[in-house]
Amino acid sequence: MRAVVVTEYAHPSKIPLTLNAPAPKAGGNEVLVDVYSAGLNFYDILQCQGKYQYQPPFPFVLGTEFAGRIAADSPIPKGCPYKPGDRVFGGVSNGAYAEKVAVKWADVLPLPANMTFDQGAGLFVTWPTSYEALVGRAELKSGEWVLVTASAGGVGIAAVQLAKALGAKVIAAAGSPAKIDVSVKYGGADHAVDYSKPNWQQEVLKITGGRGVDVVYDPVGLIRDSLKCIAWKGRAIVVGFAGGKIESLPLNLVLLKNISIVGIHWGAYTTKEPAHKPAVYGALLDLLSTGRVKPVVYGDIYPLERIADGLAALEQRKTWGKVVTRIRNEEAAEKAKL
Ligand SMILES: NC(=O)c1ccc[n+]([C@@H]2O[C@H](COP(=O)([O-])OP(=O)(O)OC[C@H]3O[C@@H](n4cnc5c(N)ncnc54)[C@H](OP(=O)(O)O)[C@@H]3O)[C@@H](O)[C@H]2O)c1
């Protein structure tokens, strides 16, 4: 099968596509999934260079998030609700950039019928991160003001849509006019500011009538800057450090406005709070199935042969929404069956 196999640490641009990689074998509680589309993540770029916190032994297939169909030759373990051909999305610690992946059936969810495989490719990590951040950690309430930084990015645009669906008033903050347009057009943000400009927080204060925002959702590393426009008793969520630097914070800023700083690490729920995950995915599937939120896929969809270009675009901050590699074409797969 075709797969992005890492045999030694290298930048994605230096990893050739393997055309005859061995197909994975399913373990006891695993199913085999034919991968149609897979989501690109910044940590893939780190992992293939040996710079990520989790490094599988060589050789390994890169990629974590995917959408596809349960394979015709998949075993169906006891208790598994799926059958061959079912449309699913899911996640693995590595192995998604391939025509086929072996995955624990508990880490697979049904892909809503109104969703394409490209849209499903980024659902497993990106969306629950933003949902749990806003609902579980910040306890967002309808009518509150939310500021989302990197609002056109993968987790950011999901946060904008979710906050809107939860009844909040959303201010998107992005680094270019094009990304501001994306945040409003595809995210549905009520207002948007360009945070590459100095004193952008003044604009946020003006929009909120001087009050500031109740919740800050920050995947960039802009908590300290955002506290200039947070409201009394506001909650700031630490989501990530896409800007490349782990922030530190003088704690008097926390005291002065009675604020809370909360973190989100979605991946850790698997070991720390597995019983909570179904509630989050259940709520998300409801919102996705009814069309109240809709995954945003970056305009260029990369075939597996060009995945390095997709990862380069992600690395160079050129992308918006979820960047996806399309591994199988649904139409071609249907024709091949006839
Ligand atoms: N906590 C969790 O459980 C969890 C889960 C998933 C992801 N994350 C983290 O969240 C962060 C964002 O992930 P994502 O998937 O949304 O990434 P993404 O799609 O690549 O978006 C990141 C955005 O950050 C902004 N940015 C600001 N400074 C940047 C820089 N120096 N280099 C690159 N981008 C920069 C860019 O938007 P502008 O151009 O508009 O500034 C970029 O579009 C990552 O750090 C990721 O590890 C955390």
Automatic annotation (TrEMBL):
Cross-referenced Pfam families: ADH_N, ADH_zinc_N
PROSITE patterns: QOR_ZETA_CRYSTAL
Record-level Gene Ontology MF annotations: oxidoreductase activity; zinc ion binding
Superkingdom to which the source organism belongs: Eukaryota
InterPro entries: ADH-like_C, ADH-like_N, ER, GroES-like_sf, NAD(P)-bd_dom_sf, Quin_OxRdtase/zeta-crystal_CS, Zn-ADH-like_protein
One GO cellular component, as annotated: mitochondrion
Chain ranges of the Enoyl reductase (ER) domain: 10-325
Protein name: NAD(P)-binding protein
Native source organism of the sequence: Wolfiporia cocos (strain MD-104)
